[in-house]
Design a protein that fits this description.
alpha/beta, Leucine Aminopeptidase, subunit E, domain 1, Aminopeptidase, nine-stranded mixed beta sheet, six-stranded mixed beta sheet, 20 strands, about 20% strand, elongated
Length: about 450
C-alpha cells in the first residue's frame, strides 16, 4: 500500500483543487490542456482523469478535490486500480498527509488482501505512521463490518485481547458478577442475550492515583434489536454497526498512544447485545448505576446511553483530564446532519473553539448545544432520570444531557460524538464501516494534548 522504494517507475497522481484549477491549467502542455478540457475535467470533487502517452501507456492521473478538499477521488482510485504511484499536491488544498490517508481508506477490503497498488512515501517517519494508521483503521472497520453472529461481546473482547496491537497494554479484567455491580446499566441491557456483557478497559501505562489520564469511551452494542421496543425491519438491517462508537474509540486510543508519547490514556468500551427475551429490560423498569443514580427505562431502544453512563462513571474514578466518547446514539443526529457529519457536544468552550477552528480548515463535525432547559424532558416520576424523552423532540440533545448527568464533576472537560459509523459510499469512496469523528479528534489531540 505504501513504500519508500521508488526503484520501479511510478506514475504521477496530481491532486487539483477546483479553486486552483486555472493556475494549474496555465502550466500544462498543450496536450494536457486539450485532453483535460475535451474530457470536461475541471477538478470537480471526485473527478478522475487518466492522461495517456501518445503510445497509449498511462502518463499521469488527475484527481479533482472540488472546492472543499474532497478526497473521495483518491480513495476511489486506490480501491479500483493497481500499480505504483506518487502524489503531486502543489495544486491541492488538502495536506499531503491527508491525501495519503485517503489512499489508505480506499485500499481497504473487508477481511481480504488490499489492492496491489503502492504509493511512494519519501519520508521514513511518515511511512511508518501510515503503516500503523492503516492497521488501526482497517482493524476498526473490520469490527464494524463483521456480522453479529461472528462478533458478540465475548468474541469482540477476545479479538482485542489477542491482537498484537494491544499486547503491551494493561487490561482490567471483569467477571460477569463484577459487571453486574460496577456496570449495572450495561448488565441490564445485555442480560437478555445468551452472550453476557463484557467490558474492555485498557490503559497504555500504569495509572497512579495522582495521574489525570485522558479517557476514551466507546459504545459497544454488538447488535441492537431495540429490545422490547423492537425496531422495524429496515431500521434493524445494519444494527451490527451499533458497536461503531467502540471501534472508533479503539482506533483513537491506538493513534493517541502513538502520537502522545507522554500521555496516560484509558480506553473503556462496555460491550452488550440488546436482544429480546424473557430476561429483557422493559419500559417502566428502574435500574441504578454504580453510583446509585436511578434510571427509569422509558424506551428499550435508548440503550446505548446506558452503556455510556456506566463508562462515564468509571472514567470519573480515574480523575480524568478529559473524557471523549463516541456512540451511534440517536437517529435525531442523523436527521439533523445526515450520515456523513457527526454531531458533537462539549461542556468546555475552549476545547469547542479549538475543534471549531479545525472545522474551518475542513468541516468534519458540527456542534449541537447542551441546552439545559431540555433536561426536564428526561425527568422521571419514579427515578432521578428517564433514559429517553418520548415527545420526539431534540433526541440527540436529551441523550447528551442524560450522559452529562453522570459526570460527578461538572467541570471535567467532556466531548461526546453522536456518530453514524457507516457510509453509503459518500465518505472517501467507502461503503460500509466509517469512522466519523476519528480524524478531527486525533488532529485535535496531536495539536493540543501532548
Amino acid at each position: 500500500m505504501f513504500t519508500n522504494d521508488n526503484t520501479e517507475c511510478s506514475t504521477k497522481i496530481s491532486i487539483i483543487s477546483q479553486i486552483k484549477f486555472d493556475k494549474w491549467l496555465l502550466k500544462q502542455s498543450s496536450f494536457i490542456k486539450n485532453w483535460s478540457l475535451s474530457n470536461n475535467f475541471k477538478a470537480e470533487s471526485g473527478k478522475i482523469l487518466k492522461v495517456p502517452y501518445e503510445d497509449g501507456r498511462l502518463k499521469e492521473v488527475l484527481i479533482g478535490e472540488g472546492v472543499d478538499q474532497n478526497l473521495d477521488g483518491v480513495s476511489s482510485f486506490s480501491s479500483l486500480n493497481n500499480g505504483n504511484y506518487y502524489i503531486f499536491a502543489k495544486f491541492a488544498k488538502s495536506k499531503e498527509s491527508e491525501i495519503h490517508k485517503a489512499w489508505a481508506w480506499g485500499n481497504y477490503n473487508y477481511q481480504s488482501k488490499p489492492k496491489k497498488n503502492l504509493l511512494y512515501i519519501k519520508d521514513q517517519k511518515e511511512l511508518e505512521f501510515l503503516i500503523f494508521y492503516t492497521q488501526c483503521i482497517n482493524f476498526s472497520r473490520d469490527l464494524i463490518n463483521s456480522p453479529a453472529n461472528k462478533l458478540n461481546p465475548l468474541s469482540y473482547y477476545t479479538k482485542i485481547k489477542s491482537n498484537q496491537m494491544f499486547k503491551k497494554f494493561n487490561f482490567v479484567e471483569y467477571s460477569e458478577k463484577d459487571i453486574g455491580t460496577q456496570f449495572p446499566l450495561t448488565y441490564a441491557v445485555g442480560k437478555s442475550s445468551f452472550v453476557k456483557p463484557k467490558v474492555i478497559e485498557i490503559t497504555n501505562k500504569k495509572i497512579l492515583q495522582k495521574d489525570k489520564p485522558l479517557v476514551i469511551i466507546g459504545k459497544g452494542v454488538t447488535f441492537d434489536t431495540g429490545g422490547v421496543n423492537i425496531k422495524p425491519g429496515n431500521s434493524m438491517r445494519n444494527m451490527k454497526k451499533d458497536m461503531g462508537g467502540s471501534a472508533i474509540a479503539i482506533s483513537l486510543f491506538l493513534l493517541a498512544n502513538y502520537l502522545l508519547t507522554k500521555t496516560k490514556i484509558v480506553l473503556i468500551a462496555p460491550l452488550a447485545e440488546n436482544s429480546v427475551s424473557s430476561k429483557s429490560m422493559r419500559p417502566g423498569d428502574v435500574y441504578q448505576s454504580a453510583s446509585g443514580k436511578s434510571v427509569e427505562i422509558a424506551h428499550t431502544d435508548a440503550e446505548g446511553r446506558l452503556l455510556l453512563a456506566d463508562a462515564i462513571e468509571k472514567a470519573m474514578s480515574y480523575n480524568p483530564s478529559m473524557i471523549i466518547d463516541f456512540a451511534t446514539l440517536t437517529g435525531a443526529a442523523r436527521v439533523a446532519l445526515g450520515e456523513d457529519l457527526p454531531a458533537y457536544f462539549c461542556n468546555n468552550e475552549l476545547i469547542a473553539k479549538k475543534i471549531d477552528n479545525l472545522n474551518k480548515e475542513k468541516l468534519r463535525c458540527w456542534r449541537l448545544p447542551l441546552y439545559q432547559p431540555y433536561l426536564k424532558k428526561i425527568k422521571s416520576q419514579v427515578a432521578e432520570l428517564s433514559n429517553a424523552s418520548l415527545d420526539g423532540m431534540a433526541g440527540s440533545i436529551t441523550a447528551a444531557l442524560f450522559l452529562k448527568e453522570f459526570l460527578n464533576k461538572s467541570d471535567t472537560p467532556w466531548l461526546h460524538f453522536d456518530t453514524y459509523a457507516w457510509s453509503h459510499g459518500s465518505i472517501l469512496g467507502s461503503n460500509g464501516a466509517a469512522l466519523q469523528g476519528l480524524e478531527i479528534i486525533s488532529e485535535f489531540l496531536r495539536k493540543n494534548f501532548n
